[in-house]
Design a protein that fits this description.
The protein is an alpha/beta fold. It has four helices and six strands. The N and C termini lie far apart (31 Å). The relative contact order is 0.20.
């Protein structure tokens, strides 16, 4: 049964290739159940692959008609998004 309760996924300080599998699994579980909030205030370093994974998760949530938001993105995360020119892809999901 699909729940409409908003699920929260907290990102770790370092999101590198070693961390991607765990984050991906948490996002998949959350997106299958309803709206998702990703808390990103602790992020100190983020890989390009992780940012693309978040874009993909947001697209999957949109296709499932669920909200997907990234709350309180850290300065490091915001800077990485800007450096890679991904501002447009993240603009609709960033909060705070």
């Amino acid at each position: 049964m699909v729940s409409k309760t908003k699920k929260s996924v907290a990102l770790p300080a370092i999101i590198d290739l070693d961390a991607l599998d765990g984050i991906r699994d948490g996002l998949i579980d959350a997106i299958e159940e309803g709206p998702v909030t990703v808390t990103a205030d602790a992020v100190e370093r983020v890989s390009t692959n992780a940012l693309f994974m978040l874009i993909s998760a947001a697209e999957t949530a949109r296709k499932n008609n669920f909200e997907f938001a990234i709350e309180q993105p850290s300065a490091a995360m915001t800077s990485a998004i800007e450096r890679l020119g991904l501002d447009a892809q993240f603009s609709g999901m960033m909060r705070g």
